[in-house]
Amino acid sequence: MNVLIWGSVLLITIIIQSTLIPLISIRGIYPDVLLIIVVSYALLSGKENGVGMGFFAGLLQDLASGGIFGIGTLSKLTTGYLFGLAERKVFKEHVLLPILATIVATIFNGLVGMLLLLIFGYKVDLIAALTQNIMPLMGYNLIVAVPIHHAVYRLIKFTAE
Q1: What Pfam families does the entry give (predicted)?
Q2: In degrees, to the nearest 5, what angle opens at C-alpha 143 toward C-alphas 65 and 141?
């Protein structure tokens, strides 16, 4: 039952992120809702669950984006694992948790994606990617991080009952 609920959440999110959210983009940048869900879920559920959520969220994103297959999967998987490691060390209901986690996760996820591109032989301008993509994405992610984190927190409580 739990897998069906979270699978549905990811599926609905990727549909919304692929169709509606680009309509509110600024210079082609729009929030990565899947990343915020992965980070929140990993912080609240641990590294094993974070890896699974990151894998499936990244896989759905790779399938929907049409970009280089595997970049989203590997970057979200590693992000889910990293934030899952902090599960026992954070106060889960603190309002600063999603804000700080989103800042770190957006930068980390972007850097992992760029590193993977470099490994695959693509040329990446690190400074341009940071200033023109990752930093604006971080600002946009911060706007939606707190409500999404609280929704994930409530859904985890609901599915645990």
Answers
A1: MreD
A2: 35
- Select from 48, 54, 50, 63 the least CA-distant residue to 15: 63
Give the domain ranges of the chain: 2-160
pTM of the model: 0.91
Q: Are 98 and 152 in contact (CB under 8 A)?
A: no
Residue 34: CB atoms within 10 Å? 24
Tell me: the pLDDT tens digits for 95-153?
Answer: 788 889 999 999 999 999 999 999 988 888 888 888 888 889 998 999 999 999 999 99
What span, in angstroms and rounded, lies between the C-alpha atoms of 19 and 95?
A: 29
Domain boundaries 2-160, CATH class? mainly alpha
Is the CA virtual torsion 99, 137, 12, 116 positive or negative? negative
Name which of 64, 19, 15, 13 is nearest 40 in CA terms. Answer: 13
